[in-house]
Design brief:
Protocatechuate 4,5-dioxygenase, Chain B, 9 helices, alpha/beta, single chain, 9-stranded mixed sheet
């Protein structure tokens, strides 16, 4: 029997019906082509995974950039944050399909099999409640209706430089259009997150975005994968650091030298811009392409 993963955060993080989903995607999509200088072909991206009202516009910007310069894509490998999964290798959903309010997207079983051969492992159960990959899927379905998907959760101990090198070399050897995406939010600051090294108040939230997030962004843009992971664990500025490091290292193996930052914001900034409300807490969001 073919495994079909049902959505677990539809109606919470994004629209629960097809109509609501499409309306929210339309609101998230950039009105104009991405103005940042982009690579001739995008092979990787880092995107945020909060509710679309907070970070959907940044995530959409990355997929729109891929659409803009790549055209069609055969498969997206989406490396997700491990909010509830621990292991020493990426956990791959290797067969069947994923369902969202926009329908089903097929899992690229052949590519998943190759990723497992390189050092990942098949583990469908690991994806049961993880939202970090799911919130990206409707953007893929909408902009790339023929594309397939390989979801892979990457726990902290799951980052392996040899795996990334092998994956990059394999993807470059194929006559297929594959883009690797890492799903991570940045600094989670405030009492609710148990992270307040600079106390509370506007100055502390400013530090979270302008200093702590920026440290992650700078390392991601300059493509220092291993240092990015080390710094994230020390500074607490990413919830999916191993996923991000995996995409950075894989993009480097495919010849990329530098990333392009498409945008950065925080939940506290969004709260003020959209709802004119102050917040004592903040989560950072950034979008980078390679």
């Amino acid at each position: 029997m073919t495994a079909v993963r049902k959505p677990v955060v539809a109606g919470q993080f994004y629209g629960g019906s097809r109509r609501q989903c499409l309306e929210e995607i339309a609101e998230c999509m950039p009105a104009e082509p991405v103005g940042v200088e982009l690579p001739e072909t995008i092979v990787g991206a880092i995107v945020p995974h909060a509710g679309w009202v907070f970070s959907g516009a940044l995530a959409a910007r990355a997929f729109a950039a891929v659409r803009q310069v790549n055209g069609d894509v055969d498969t997206f490998i989406v490396f997700g944050a491990a909010h509830g999964y621990a292991g020493n290798a990426p956990a791959v959903y290797d067969s069947g399909a994923w369902e969202t309010p926009l329908g089903e997207i097929e899992i690229d079983g052949r590519l998943a099999e190759q990723i497992i051969k390189l050092g990942a492992k098949a583990d469908i159960a690991a994806h049961r409640y993880e939202h970090s990959i799911e919130v990206q899927v409707p953007f893929i379905q909408h902009l790339f209706p023929q594309a397939k998907l390989v979801p892979a959760i990457v726990p902290v101990d799951g980052f392996k430089a040899d795996f990334c090198r092998g994956l990059g070399e394999f993807l470059d050897s194929q006559n297929r259009r594959v883009v690797c995406v890492a799903s991570t939010d940045l600094t989670h600051y405030g009492p609710r997150y148990g992270f307040c090294p600079h106390g509370t108040g506007p100055a502390s939230l400013q530090w979270a975005g302008e200093v702590n997030d920026k440290a992650f962004i700078d390392l991601a843009v300059s493509m220092q994968a291993e240092k990015l992971l080390e710094e994230s664990l020390r500074a607490g500025n990413a919830c999916g650091p191993a996923a991000a490091a995996t995409v950075v290292a894989t993009a480097a193996a495919r010849g990329r030298k530098q990333g392009a930052l498409l945008g950065h914001t925080t939940s506290s900034e969004v709260m003020m811009e959209k709802f004119q409300q102050h917040s004592d807490e903040s989560v950072g969001y950034a979008t980078i392409v390679y």
